[in-house]
């Protein structure tokens, strides 16, 4: 299914690139803040900011809270937010227009599935070269899977921290 670039004022649809998912041993309500926190940390790092500036990402700066439609981080604008189950981001730069949608689907009361779906177009010669560098080398796959893994670790670490705190309260911890 193509993705429409809602906030950028374009009627064109973006071709699907890929979709990745990971199972998280936490309820979806706990995974949502981890998703927002990890994305915010990643997209405000100096290396990402330098890359975003180099390729002239639009939007080019952070404005607003990531769980609000229209909020931005360098390279991404929130196109849709259905807290705590879906966050759709979109952006563009010199070589591409793209969308990245995260969905959190409950599996049961204690687990969920976190999915990241990517769509993009790479217009012109330079876009084709950029696609070869990012998609062709599997760099995009590695980056998205790493992002999902970090969100999972952060969400599940919260569970481990809570369990350690409870064991200390009960006198069983270190």
What's the topology here?
Blueprint: E1 3-4, E2 13-14, E3 16-24, H1 28-43, H2 46-54, E4 72-73, E5 76-82, E6 86-93, E7 96-106, E8 112-121, H3 124-136, H4 139-169
Helix pairs in contact: 1-4
How would you sum up this structure, described in words?
With about 170 residues, the protein is of the alpha+beta class. About 40% of the residues lie in helices and about 30% in strands. The chain contains four helices and eight strands; from the N terminus they run E-E-E-H-H-E-E-E-E-E-H-H. It has a six-stranded antiparallel sheet with strand order 3-8-7-6-5-4. The longest helix is centred in the last third of the chain and has 31 residues. The protein is globular and about 50 Å long.
Strand content: 25-35%
Q: How far is the first residue's CA from the last residue's CA?
A: 52 Å
- Cα shape: globular
Q: Tally the helices: what do you get?
A: 4
Helix content: 25-40%
Instruction: Count the beta strands.
Output: 8
Structural category is alpha+beta
Q: What is the assembly state of the chains in this entry?
A: single chain
Mean of residue pLDDT values: 88
Q: In angstroms, what is the radius of gyration?
A: 18 Å
Provide the spatial order of strands within the biggest beta sheet.
Answer: 3-8-7-6-5-4
Unreliable runs: 1-12, 164-171
The helix/strand order is EEEHHEEEEEHH
Biggest sheet: strands, sense, closure? Answer: 6 strands, antiparallel
């Amino acid at each position: 299914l193509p993705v429409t670039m809602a906030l950028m004022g374009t009627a064109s649809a973006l071709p699907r690139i890929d979709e990745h998912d990971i199972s998280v041993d936490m309820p979806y309500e706990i995974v949502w803040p981890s998703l927002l926190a990890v994305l915010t940390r990643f997209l405000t790092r100096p290396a990402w900011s330098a890359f975003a500036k180099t390729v002239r990402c639009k939007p080019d700066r952070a404005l607003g809270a990531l769980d609000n439609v229209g909020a931005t981080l360098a390279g991404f604008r929130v196109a849709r937010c259905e807290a705590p189950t879906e966050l759709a981001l979109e952006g563009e730069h010199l070589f591409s227009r793209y969308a990245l949608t995260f969905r959190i689907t409950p599996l049961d009361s204690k687990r969920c599935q976190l999915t990241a779906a990517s769509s993009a177009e790479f217009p012109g010669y330079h876009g084709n070269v950029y696609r070869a560098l990012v998609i062709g080398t599997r760099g995009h796959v590695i980056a998205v899977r790493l992002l999902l893994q970090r969100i999972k670790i952060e969400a599940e670490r919260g569970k481990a921290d809570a369990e350690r705190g409870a064991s200390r309260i009960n006198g069983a911890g270190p």
